[in-house]
Amino acid sequence: MSAVETAVENLPVLIVGQGIAGTMFAWELMTRGYRPGDDFLILDAGPEFGSSLSSTGLINPVVFKRMTLSWGADLVDIAWDRYGALEKRLAREGYARSFVDMRPIIRLFRSRAERDAWQAAGGALGLPPADDALSGHRIAPAGALAGAADIPGSGRIRPDVLLRGFRSWMEGCGGLVRGILQTSGERPPSAGELSAAGIPSTFVPRSAVLSTGIQFRYGAGGGRRPEYHLPDRKLLYYPVKGDVLELSLPELDGLSRGRILNAGISIIPAESPGHYLAGSSYIRDFEDPSPDPGGAGWILDQLHPLVPALERKELESRVLRRRAGIRPASRDRLAYLGPVDSSGMTEGKSFYRSFNGLGTRGYMLAPGLARILADHLLEGTAVPAELHPGRNLKPS
Ligand SMILES: Cc1cc2nc3c(=O)[nH]c(=O)nc-3n(C[C@H](O)[C@H](O)[C@H](O)COP(=O)(O)OP(=O)(O)OC[C@H]3O[C@@H](n4cnc5c(N)ncnc54)[C@H](O)[C@@H]3O)c2cc1C
What we know:
The structure is a single chain. The chain is α/β, with parallel strands linked by helices. The protein contains ten helices and 18 strands. It has helices spanning 3-10, 20-31, 76-93, 112-125, 159-172, 191-196, 253-256, 293-303, 312-317, 362-379; strands at 13-16, 40-44, 58-59, 62-63, 68-69, 100-101, 106-108, 148-150, 155-157, 176-178, 207-210, 240-248, 261-263, 265-269, 275-279, 319-327, 336-339, 352-356. A hairpin with a 1-residue loop joins strand 13 and strand 14. Helix 2 packs across helix 10 and helix 3 (76-93) packs across helix 10. Bound molecules: flavin-adenine dinucleotide. Flavin-adenine dinucleotide is lined by residues 16-22, 43-47, 49-52, 54-58, 180-181, 211-213, 215, 228, 230, 242, 244, 279-280, 325-328, 356, 358-364. Residues 16-22, 43-47, 49-52, 54-58, 180-181, 211-213, 215, 228, 230, 242, 244, 279-280, 325-328, 356, 358-364 line the site of flavin-adenine dinucleotide.
């Protein structure tokens, strides 16, 4: 079968979920000429339930803990390319202002050991040498910093501007409807299930991409993904909660000078002058999805050495807002990409494809994985074996 025949057979596509995964998959289809509302439709329960809006949206290919590059570091270029093109298009359509900040994040070394690890890994990873005197970064020394360096390939996407802008655009052209897909089986959803989800009867999906993240019920007896019954519930998820604080901290202005910093936590200049976002915590063990006092405390502990003039108590009083989200993560920390159903797990033409488990680096990975998934869906190419959902099924 030719690539074109395969593509025709597979369209139209129902994209379930408009987090960063669903958004960038829809945009990938559009860059290939597919039309929202006709060739694909996005169904979303509401982004307020997802992880992408709570996210800090940073793109950073370096794993500091191990001083290596993360899985998918080679997808950074395509990420910048796709985000840049989408930013231009959304501005042209009148739906969003700028949301891409390609200025590299500045890594601050809090000790000689951190700086030495950076220098040692530098040659192999292509990292620039540390700026020991901080003069190149025009940073006002704070605490006991041992230097700074630009993180190559890093930067930031503003999640709220991108996601809300794309959502309005898609709603405006009939490419997105609000609703929840529930289906108990692996077969395509019935006409009744589609209409219950608010999908117009004119749209008949031939395949569905599940970019559904993780849902978490509030309160006692809560569970993972309890509300929705889709085939990807069979995959093993290890959700990780993350907190983000917004603080009034003009004391950081001299250090940041409008740039994003990383010093164990990330520090991001917010909209209002002197305000910063700081995050994110990494909490595996949690009962509910609300902001976590322990997570907030950990963030403040990391932040405190950078503003030594402030008492720890004073720092606490500078917190203006707290938010938390749940990262959809897998046990091996790799995404779930490709066919998901028990009969066609190896390759096959299953109705459902998973685009999930993006973990801590969803913004870095989503555009590149969207390209791989689109190639798979439309041209029949294989997804990388290490991402195949079949590797990690719950025992039945
Ligand atoms: C605090 C925090 C900070 C983070 N910081 C970063 C960062 O700096 N950089 C980075 O790269 N990553 C970061 N991440 C991780 C990143 O945000 C996630 O990997 C990413 O958001 C996952 O996106 P997603 O589209 O898979 O899922 P989600 O954003 O959860 O989207 C899923 C969508 O599907 C919808 N949905 C679910 N089920 C159904 C259904 N049955 N029917 C209809 N709709 C449905 C949901 O309502 C939701 O809108 C962070 C995460 C958190 C929580």
